[in-house]
Amino acid sequence: MARLSRVEAVEQVNMAFQDELPSRQAQLTALRATQEFDVLVVGGGATGSGCALDAVTRDLKTALVERDDFSSGTSSRSTKLIHGGVRYLQKAIVKLDYEQYMMVKEALHERSNLLNIAPHLTALLPIMLPIYKWWQLPYYWAGIKIYDLVAGAQCLKSSYILTKTKALELFPMLKRDKLVGAIVYYDGQHNDARMNLAIALTAARYGAAIANYTEVVHLLKRVDPQMGKERVCGARCRDVITGQEFDVRAKCVINATGPFTDALRKMDDQKNPNICQPSAGVHIVIPGYYSPDNMGLLDPATSDGRVIFFLPWEKMTIAGTTDTPTEITPHPIPMEEDINFILTEVRNYLSPDVEVRRGDVLAAWSGIRPLVTNPNSKDTQSICRNHIVHISDSGLVTIAGGKWTTYRSMAEDTLDAAVKAHNLSAGPSKTVGLMLEGAKDWTPTMYIRLVQDYGLEVEVAQHLASSYGGRAYEVAKMAHVTGKRWPIVGKRLVSEFPYIESEVQYAIKEYACTAIDVIARRTRLGFLNVQAAEEALPRIVDIMGKQLTWSEQRKREELSAAKQFLYYEMGYKARSEQLTDTSEITLTPAEVGRYMKRFHKFDKENKGFITTVDVQRVLESINVYIDADTLHEILNEVDLNKNGQVEFNEFLQLMSAVKKGQVSANRLAILMKTAEQSLDQTEKPVSVDRSGGGV
């Protein structure tokens, strides 16, 4: 069915820009120069981009403006699942709620479509539901089977039951005590920010004028001569980067601003009541060894009744989410209590042998769900994420609520309502089966050609194929020669991730304007490992600066802004606060004695502190050479009072934090332990605490 629709869609819609996308400057010129658009969409998240694509493929003259970057809000901060919503189905059955049931049915149809139209960005993911009580087995089995049945012909794969032995074989980290068995069902998974970007870029290819970093200052209105009422007829916009303002006129304005829906509604009419009730969802990323490569985990009933997913993603493990009422902000910050809540719930399901440490949290973020308010609701968890389309007296069309998976059907409903309310000349939606950016020319084996034709590493080639699809060849062509025997091309931004320098250049073609756009949404480095992202930043800023002719001052500003983003929004602050100069030292006298002996191997003069010179001297004596800049970085991680040296008390605070699991894989701790062992080969090996790197 979807494939037939796809053929029809491709035949009916002409792509305006097959090869090169218009530059951001060209898009801004189009926004300024066009006398009147049929549709102006405000908001570049999944729903707004979906609305622009739906409109432009109906042959409507379409514009889209986004005040930040595409997918900079909630759309890049999801659980990365494309799903019908198992928990919504459970609510629908228990409460006999037909509306919830239809929402799940619609989402399952959209799940199938999304897997078809962006195969490079999506994948099937088996999710295990471990069972610890016998009576739960038939209960959950029936629920999951109904989930399969509701999907009907679009069921991805049939769910199945596992014995305890088989469940542990597939998910060895699972807690075995009292485990009865498990149920495995299938949902989809995607790279959410790049999916959002693919939707927006596809709209641009079909001729939509889209611009990020373009905010609405106020709505334009005119009096309708027939009705004698004021009608919205466009928006006064400002290019955030240059500060220039201009008018964009349109027959219809669509408000698709997610959590900021009410701000635009009040721009239309100050008396408009709030219709959005924001809820914060925090996620954390921990190392990939915490979960199998291709099996997720669902905790259907946490200690406070929420649902926690534990999923492999981009070779890491993502865990979340929370669901708490919040204030609306463009820069939500993950709170320590939410991070610890997720870690506690994860520990409940993993084997006691697997120590889940706070120090293993590599990144954390909070996304604001734009839930539609139900006046009778007592808490945000019980609010249904159905969407509503509302048309104000002045003609402003608002789309609110909904969920990531149903962005396309939400856009279709919105445009149907807009066409009817504004008497626009347009046919039905053509987006079912319409392939997104990169889907054309993608095959599951195309990465082999990238390796063979360009000399890329296999891991890098696989990453490019799954991120850019058929456009990966363009990224590969831009890659620089490494000067090594292998790989021939493709210099990595950081050694442990497959992101390469040419992706930064290509990101600019995809409308990246800042370093944050690159680390957060063109690549996903900021979401995967904040320290690795910080390490890559200077090179990213250099490449962007050269391409966009940034001044030295602008480069410094970009670097500072990106570090702030990592510090607050990606959990670096919460991570760094695990080790402070007020951290409590909880070491036994024997441990203090052991660490004093280790410290004095470096502090030969008994100064009470060590510097890079001391560390360099010891390392050279065992034939280990590390450059001065790297050594300075290593000591700076532990130098809590930032005086250029590490005092003995700071060292004890570090080792205490390592012991408690608050800090892991600390470079200085591992370096000093290794050096001590090399210096004192004759000593019996010391028993060590469980910690990062065994320090």
TrEMBL record:
SMART domains: EFh. The keyword Oxidoreductase applies. Pathway: Polyol metabolism; glycerol degradation. Keywords: Calcium, FAD, Flavoprotein, Metal-binding, Mitochondrion, Oxidoreductase, Repeat, Transit peptide. One of its GO terms (molecular function) is calcium ion binding. Its cofactor is FAD. Pfam families: DAO, DAO_C, EF-hand_7. One of its GO terms (biological process) is glycerol-3-phosphate metabolic process. Its EC number is 1.1.5.3. It comes from the Eukaryota. It is found in: Mitochondrion. Residues 590-625, 626-661 form the EF-hand domain. Its main location: mitochondrion. It is an enzyme of class 1 (oxidoreductase). It catalyses: a quinone + sn-glycerol 3-phosphate = dihydroxyacetone phosphate + a quinol. One of its GO terms (cellular component) is mitochondrion. InterPro entries: DAO_C, DAO_C_sf, EF-hand-dom_pair, EF_Hand_1_Ca_BS, EF_hand_dom, FAD-dep_OxRdtase, FAD/NAD-bd_sf, G3P_DH_FAD-dep. Belongs to the FAD-dependent glycerol-3-phosphate dehydrogenase family. Calcium-responsive mitochondrial glycerol-3-phosphate dehydrogenase which seems to be a key component of the pancreatic beta-cell glucose-sensing device. This is Glycerol-3-phosphate dehydrogenase, mitochondrial. It comes from Oncorhynchus kisutch (Coho salmon). The lineage of its organism: Eukaryota, Metazoa, Chordata, Craniata, Vertebrata.
